[in-house]
Structure formats: C-alpha cells, structure tokens
Design a protein that fits this description.
The complex is a heterodimer. Helices cover about 70% and strands about 0% of the residues of chain A. Chain A has helices at about 20-45, 50-80, 90-95, 100-105, 105-110, 115, 130-135, 140-170, 175-200, 215-240, 250-280, 280-290, 295-315, 320, 325-345, 360-380, 395. Chain B folds into two domains: about 15-50 and about 150-185, Alpha-Beta Plaits (2-Layer Sandwich), CATH 3.30.70; about 65-130, no CATH class. Chain B is elongated, with a radius of gyration of 25 Å. The chains are: A mainly alpha, B alpha+beta.
Chain lengths: ~400, ~190
Amino acid sequence: MTSHAPSAAIRPEQVALPAGSLLARLPVLGAGLFGLGLVLSVVFRSSNPRGFAFAWLNAYLFCLTLALGGLFFLLIQRATQAGWSIAVRRPVEAVVGTLPLFFLLFIPVWLSMGDLYPWSLPAAAHDPLLKWKAPYLNTSFFTVRAIIYFVLWSALALYYTRASASQDRGAGNGPTVAMRRFAPPAILLLALTQTFAAIDWAMSLSPKWYSTMWGVYFFAGAFVGFFGLLLLLVIPLQRGALHGIVTIEHVHDTGKHLFAFTCFWAYIAFCQFFLIWYGNIPEETAYYQVRIHGGWKTISAVLAIGHFIIPFFYLMGRTVKRKPALLAIGAAWILLMHLLDIAWIVLPVSHPEGLSIGAVEIACYLAVGGAFLAGIGWNLKRQALVPTGDPRLRESLAFEVS
Amino acid sequence: MPQLPMVASLPPGPYYGALAEFATPADLYHACEQVRDAGYRRWDAHTPFPVHGLDRAMGMRRSPMPFIVLGMALLGAAAGFGLQYWVHSVEYPLTISGKPYFAWPAYVPITFELGILFGSLGAVFGMLGLNQLPMHWHPLFSSAPFEKASDDTFFISIESWDPKFEPEKTRQFLQGLGARRVELVASE
C-alpha cells in the first residue's frame, strides 16, 4: 500500500560510504584543516594570547554545542523509542561520537583560563562580589567540574554509539532495551551538566552577570544548530549513497525539527532578553548593554531577523522541507546563524566595539572545526551508514509522514 | 426513505449519487485509485477508521488550511501589536517603569498570544467551513447500509453533479471495481 516498501534485505555495499565522496574524504580533509589551524593558532597564541583565547573558545563552543545537541537528540530518540529516526541515526551517532575529542580540544581553554575568566585572577580576591562567588568560581573546582562533564559526556557518547554498533554484529534486541532504560536518567544528567558547562564556560566570562534562562538558551542554540548539521549530512546521503533507504520522509521530519527548534530558540532568546529588559537591573542588563549598542547592535538585529524571522517563514511550508536542495540551504543558513549566535555570546567580552572575524578567529575555526569534521567523517566511514542490526529498522524504512 | 434494492432498471431520480460498498480497506483503496484515474471529481470515500495513504489513492489536492491559519495568525499578530501601539503610543501614552512610549518588546507577548489565538480559531472554523460542518442531515443517511460506514464497511460515493456521472454507467463502473453492492441514492 505504501510507495516506500522496505526492501527485503539491505546489501552491505549499499550502506557503506562510497569512496571518493566528499563525506568519505572528511577525515583527511578535516585532519588537514586541523593541522593548519593548529599551527596558526600556536603562532597567534604567542603574539596575542587573549585574542587567541577568545577565538578558540568561540570556535570550541560552536562545535561542542552541535555535538551536545546531537547527544540530546540521540537520547530523546532512545527514550521515546522513536521509529522514524533509525534510518538517520548513524549520522547522529557520527556527530555524537566526536564528544571524547572535545576533552582534548578543551586544553587550550583551560590553559587560557586567566585570559578568559576574570574570576580566576588573583585580583578577584579583592572584589566583594567575586569573593562571594569564589566557592563556586575558583580554578580547582572549575577544573574538577570540567572533568566531570567530559567523563559523563564521553561515557554516554561511547556507550550509545558502541551499543548501537554491536547490533550490526548481531547483538540482537538486548542493547535496544538497555539503551532505552538508561536514556531518561541520561537526559537528566546531560541537562544538568550542559547547564553547568554553559554557566562555567560562557556565562562566567562576565562573572558578575547572571541569567536564569542561560542554560535553556544555550541548549536551544545547540539543538537547532545540530539539526542544521544533521541535515547537511543526511541530505547528501539521501540523494547519493543511501538513495531509497533514507527517503524524503526522513528528511522532511528532520526538517520539521529544524523549524520547530528555530521557533524554540527565538522564544527562549526573546524571553531572556525580555525579562532582563523589563526588570532593568544593572547587574543583569550589562550583558545586553554591550550587545545592543555599537557594532554589536547590528549583529543583534541580524540574529533576530536571520536566526528567526527569515527561517521561520522559509522553513514553515511543507514544500521547502520536502525539497532536499531547498532544505539544505535552510540548514546551512541555520548553522551559519548558530555560529553567529555563539560569536555574539563570546566575542563581545573581548571585542566590545563590534564583531571582527580576523585571522585568529578563522585559525581557531579551522583547528576545532577540522578536528570535529575529521571525527564525524571517521565515524561515518568505519561502520554501516544505517544500523542494519537494529530490530526496528524495517519500521523506520517504511516510515511516511502522513 | 426505503432502502433501494439492487435492481436492473434505474430508480427514478433526482439522485444524490451512487454509493458503492466494499468489504476491505484494500478493496476500497484500489477502487479509489480507479475512480481517481477515471477522472471523477465530485466523490468521496467513507471508512470507519483512517486508511493510510488513501488521500493519495483518491488524488486529493493539498488543503488550503495552512494558508487560512497563517493568514489568521498574521492578522491576529498585527491586531495585537496594533492595539498596543495605538493605546500606549498614540491614544493614551503613559510612562510605565521608565520605558519609552513605544516600548515594542513589551508588546511581543500579547502579539504572540493573539497570533496563536487567531491562528487556532482560523484552524477550527476554517476546518468546519471547508467541511461544511455542522451538517445535521446528509442524503447518504437515507441509505440503511451506510450506517455501517462507522462500523466495518467501506464506501465510495460519487455525486450526481460530477460531470462524468451517468446513473447507469457509474453504477456499472463501481460494480466493476469489486463493490459488494451499489445503490443509487435519491437526493433528500
């Protein structure tokens, strides 16, 4: 009755990344970019340590949020036993599988703590407010917390990708049940650690400022950015290697997530701004003070229009979400806006006069982004592009948006 | 209305249309494809439960509902924003907690809520309007077997004002699609 009847069996060559495709070249390409970026970064760090520190954190948070958004998505699919997403789960796992890498990529942030975080300097001991916050904002507890986050994220990423891979080798239904059982507590742990990481690494750049919406805002950007990245991985597969396995129905549903969380991001971003604007308390407004005046005013307007109004109308209709080329444009646009959103969070602290993406920022994007892309490519390459051993794969292949 | 038996000669008109009865969803599905391909325009399928993919088998066009909802939502948002602008900036300006008269961020929640309200009202009443509901009587109700459309039987009805409708030919056409029985339903 359906036009996408699942084929009886998937042949192994159908679900391997074809050699020579852009995705198959990602590991080499990414490693090259990483090497180039790293060399340039080291050079810039010696001449301009503070500029480098902010540029690295900026690039780091951009990529890390995408991977964490992926982990959230993977856990939610497991907790809800979603059937539709099984066909696109391997690209999700490829993104999530890079999380252990971010432990290493965090080292430059840790080394630059003094340049990034005013509370870590000895002078903070003389500031009454920072002194009061010192039981939480101090270098040793900061380090311990970072280790806890990375251990938890890496453990979740490795468990969920490896248990899924074990089913390709005939592990049967057991891992599916175990992964589902563990998903709800894992979501809670991830929500807590990601919120505290957002506070530690981004909010404490301005240690006297606080926003109770911060964790949700950070999550909203991470989640919507991840769907942009996922679509850019899924659409080439749907049109190429996985033609007839990953269908327009899967692309359409991923596109719906992109649209929905674009709205969610706008809702949360506005809520955060609105309450601070309305309350008009100096400690809170300091954050927006620098961002709605001077050069950053333009970026704030670009974010409001480009991260919400344009994609809201562009992605709303069914037609765009069912035309892969058009949806890919929307996905790339959202990814670009997420990059701008992170820059808008991090860079005004070091460059209050306005956005300037210079050589050091680009070098850091190359280094962190290159490592991230290499990780994704390597994860895609080393296993089947759809989880052939998943007991519910047939259900996913037959999925249709009604 | 007496139930019309399957007869060789045609009952007297005027007709509402022809009603064909099918035993299974699969029979109905394939019959719908053929009614669609035969070029009928004014017809419908009646099932006790949603049949997956039937909209495609019937060749149904996209509903205009999304545009009704979007239009209403934009109208609501404009009304919400306009009302607040007019009240706070034009007609009765007041200084509230030191904000300017045209404090647009403060207008956003009401603008958003009215957009949602008008959009959902557009969805409900648009749906009722497009389905011509509420409708307390329908000519098909005069067919006793049609009661089973909410139980275990699947129907196709072709309306007499379809350009291709000819009582005897349409009846035979439906019969040829594997219908269990076909009747011509009088109008009223």
